[in-house]
Every structure is written in C-alpha cells, then in structure tokens.
Amino acid sequence: MADKSGGIKGYRIGAFGPGGIGPGAMKSEPPRPIPHPYEDVADPARPRHVLDYVLARRSILETIKNDVLAREKVCDADPYLVRAAKNHGEQTERNCPICAKSQLRHVTYVYGDDLGYLAGRVKMSSELPQMAQEYGHFRVYVVEVCVLCGWNHLQLSYVLGDGTPRRPPTKPRDVLE
Length: 177
Description:
Elements: E1 11-13, E2 21-23, E3 48-52, H1 54-65, H2 71-74, H3 79-88, E4 90-95, E5 103-111, E6 121-123, H4 128-134, E7 138-145, E8 152-160
Antiparallel strand pairs: 1-2, 3-8, 4-5, 5-6, 5-7, 7-8
C-alpha cells in the first residue's frame, strides 16, 4: 500500500541507496565495510584465490580474428593506464597480440580494506612479498598493456596477506588528494 511520499507504507524510497527501498529513514552515514575474517595462512606471500582470465582473453582474440569485434573497441586503454604501463609497468617477453610491434607490460594494482588510503596503487611485483607480511588481506590485479596500440586486458587476480585483519593506516595530512 502506498503512503503520501509515494513509497510503500513503512518504507522510504532510497533507504538502501539510490533507487532502493527499505524500512525507516535514509541514513546519512555510508555503510561500513565488513572486515575480512581471520584466515589461517601458512605463507602470506603465496597467492591464493587465484583467478586467471586467459579464457576470456582467448575469446576476445578469437572474436577479433573472425572480424566480429572491431580492433578499436579492444584497444581502448585509459590514458592513465598507458602512462602507468610506461612508467611503472614491468616488461614481459610476450608481444602484443594485436599490433605485434611492442612487448606487453604488466601493471600490478593492489586493493583491499586493510590498505586504507593506499588501495588502488600501482606496485612492482618485488614489493608484494613485503606487503603480504604487513597487511592481512588484499587483492592483486595484474593487467597486461600495450603502450603502442592500447590493448589492455586483466590477466590475473589473486589474494595475498597473512590473514590477520588490521586497521587501515590513517592518511597523513601531507598527502594530496
């Protein structure tokens, strides 16, 4: 049954976010992230929960080869991703599957509640074992990028960390946003 505000009686539109309905009034505070539970980890630097996107990559390349998908639609790397690949990416031995003129670069990003304001940063693969000892749980994303034609594809994602949930570091005052 609808009330005067246009919502269902006892519910207010937007109580669970834009377009959602839920009981009571809208809350002004953002939802708190659910901390990752404690996990018993033998080796924090050993990847776990690994997702390999090789089949999706193979499917896209097969579609391009059959001319179903235009090259311009897959060579659409964000300028910031290309810049990160040029300046912070790690050179691989594989050539670009699209242009075959350049070697691919791997850009590694880290995300997780334990990282706090450090989440979303580009890291070198040599920094990851040290981070795995310092943080409880974070996800690593490896993106392959061609700096010439703009090909980019998520290659791999996995979890690192010692499994002990930690309070995220507080952002120093001198960090610019």
